[in-house]
Amino acid sequence: MKKNYIFAFITILIWASMATMVKLLLADIPNLEALAISSVFAFLFLLIINIKTGKIKEMKQHAPKQYGVMAGLGFLGLFLYSGLYYYGIGELSSQEACILNYLWPMMIVLFSCLILKERVTVLKCVAMVCSFLGIVILSLGKSETTGGNNTAGMVACIVAAACYGLFSVLNKKKDYDQNITMMVIWLTVAVCAFAVGPFLEDWVPVRGMQWIGIIWLGVMTDAVAYLLWALALKGAEDTAKIANLAYLTPFLSVVCSALVLKEKIKLQALVALVLIIGGILLQSLCERKKEK
């Protein structure tokens, strides 16, 4: 059980660096172009890992239908999620999009109850509300809009959160090797992004330091982080406890931005931290009482 939490915390730390890395190095690269190229690096990294560990030989054990399921999971959970979320960011302010995006841990709990038949408790609901309230407070202070289609942006972010929540639960339900599964998933994302990206965006050459950002996103954020997150959820007895930890990501992202980009941390961030940690501790306390 402790290993699941280690995987989850490593994932959260990597995800927390993503916004800063994108802002520093990838601001001038279209979203789907960055997704397409970084997905190739994610696939190649996982391919090398699977070859070196010998897991590549296990690919023969999966039927073509199972690879179709893996590809479907990749299309639903990472291609659609990323594409819809990026669109939402373009139509809304980044903080509005962030609030809606962090519905996905709540979606994991919802779909876990519906699909995996995990028990819903009052304390579990209170803990999730507490943590989400922290996300809301963290995002207060800026109310500017980008002049885009707010309704379409909000719908896109909500659907994106549902896509990733459903993906996480379905991926946990399927008894596939996660190293192989995530490799197939990122290959699927790369193929989809390369197929539709040039028609929706004006792609530009990637230069200099931008390659560092692309490689970081591909290897660390995409390959390592998503693989560890999938392993953390698959090994968890209670999916909600792991999913609730994801609410630490936006606060740590603010800290990372303050250290690297010299952005000021507001009082809302400190209040949000108390609520986020409070929600996590509440779930942990509930679980300890149940074990006793």
Please give the radius of gyration in angstroms: 19 Å
Q: How much helix, percentage-wise, in residues?
A: over 70%
Low-confidence blocks of residues: none
Shape: globular
Count of individual domains? 1
Instruction: Give the amount of beta strand, in percent.
Output: under 5%
- Between the first and last Cα atoms, what is the distance in angstroms? 16 Å
Taking the sheet with the most strands, its summary is:
none
Number of strands: 0
Question: Mean pLDDT score, rounded?
Answer: 80
How many helices in DSSP terms? 13
SSE pattern: HHHHHHHHHHHHH
Structural class: mainly alpha
Quick synopsis:
This protein is mainly alpha-helical and 292 residues long.
Structural summary, described in words:
This protein is mostly helical. It has one domain. Helix content is 78%, strand content 0%. It contains 13 helices and no strands. The protein has helices at 2-16, 18-25, 31-53, 64-91, 94-101, 104-115, 122-138, 150-173, 178-200, 210-234, 239-245, 248-261, 267-291. Helix 3 (31-53) runs antiparallel to helix 9 (178-200) and helix 4 (64-91) packs antiparallel against helix 8. The longest helix has 28 residues, at 64-91. The radius of gyration is 19 Å and the shape is globular. The protein starts with a helix and ends with a helix. The mean pLDDT is 80.
